[in-house]
Amino acid sequence: MSAKTGSETGTSTGSGDTNTTGFGGEALRRKRLLGKVFLGACFAATMVGIVALIALLVDVTVEAWGWVTWEFLTYPPSRFAENYNPANYGSLDTGPGGIYPALIGSIYLIVLTAVFTLFLGVGSAIYLEEYASESRLTQFIEANIANLAGVPSIVYGLLGLAMFVRALQTGSSLLAGALTLTLLILPIVIVSSQEALRAVPDSMRRASYGAGATKWQTIRNVVLPEAIPGIMTGIILSLSRAIGETAPILMIGAATSMFAPPRLTQPTDAFSAMPMQIFDWAAQPQGDFQHVAAAGIVVLLTILLLMNATAIVIRNKFERRG
Question: What phi, psi does 153 have (nearest 5°)?
C-alpha cells in the first residue's frame, strides 16, 4: 500500500511538473513574441524617419544639382532668377547671384551665440551642480530650466523683441539675434552640461580634496577636463539647432535679404541669415528660385553636418585622452 501510494504520488508530482513546465514555456514564447513585435515596431518607426530624411535629401540634392557654385557662395543675392543659373554667368551684366551676405551673417551670429552660451550656460551648470546646495529654490530653478527647453522658439523671438530690440534699444541687429538665440538654446546647454558634470565620479573629487586642492582647483583641474566631451557635444549640437532657426530672428526683424554682410566688429549692424534668405527665395513665384532655395538648403545642411562632425571629433578626442 505504501509503495503504491508513493508511486501514485510520484506520478502525480511528475504530471504537475509537466503542466507547470508547459505553462512556463507558453509564457516564455508569448514574451518572446511580444519582444519581436516591439522590436519590429521600433525598427519600423526608425525606418519612417530614415526614409523621410533620405527622400528629403534626394529631392533637395536633385533640385540644387549644378546650382551650388563658388559664385553662389561668394556673391550677394539678386532679384532675378536667371542671375543664379550657372549657364548664364557668361552673359550677365550685373554679376551672379549668391548667398554670401546671409552665409557670413549666419556664421557671425553663431560665433556670438557660442560665446554667450559658453559663459552663461556652462557657468550656470557649474554653479547649480557644484556650488548650489540642495534646496527647494534650487529644485525650482532646475525644474524651470528643464521646462524652458520645450518652449516653442517663436516665444523666445517675442522675448528677444521685447528685451533686446525694444528695452535695450539694440534694434534688429546682430547682437539682438545672438542674444535671442542664446536664450533659445541656454536651457539645453545647461541641462546637458549638468549631466556631463554629474557623470564625473565623486571619487575623483575626493582624491583631489585629499591632495589639498580647493574646490575651484578641483573643478578646474579635475571635473571640467573630464566633463568637456559632454559639455562641448551639447553646445555644438545646440548651436546646430540655432543656426537653422527662423522664427526667433524673424520676430526680432532680421532682414530677409541683404547685399552686404555684417561686420563682426560692429555687432549693432543689421544682418540676414541663411534661413531668412532661403525663406525669401522659396516664396518667389519664378520656378528657378526653387532651385536657388534648394541650393541654399544644401549649403545650410553642409554647415550643420560639419558642426555635428566637429562635435563627434571633439568628443572622441577627449574620450581617448581620458
Answer: -65, -30
Do residues 99 and 277 touch, judged by C-beta distance below 8 A? yes
- Structure confidence by residue, pLDDT tens digits, 222-262: 898 888 888 888 888 898 888 888 889 888 888 777 888 88
> What are the residues facing 270 on neighbouring strands?
173
Query: Between the CA of residue 164 and those of 187, 238, 298, what are the distances in Å?
Result: 19, 21, 31
Q: Which residues pair with 272 in a beta bridge?
A: 255
Q: How far apart, in whole angstroms, are the C-alpha atoms of residue 93 and residue 122? A: 51
As a residue count, the chain comes to 322
Burial 150-188 (b: 16+ CB within 10 A, else e): eeebeebbebbbebbbeeeebbbbbbbbbbbbbbbbbbb
Query: Residue 271: left if φ>0, alpha if ψ -120 to 50, beta else—which one?
Result: beta
146: amino acid identity, one letter: A
* Residues contacting residue 236 through CB under 8 Å, at least 6 positions apart: 307, 308, 310, 311, 314
| CA angle centred on 81, ends 86 and 306, rounded to 5° | 65
Phi, psi of 46 (to 5 degrees): -65, -40
Assessment of whether the complete model's pTM goes beyond 0.85:
no
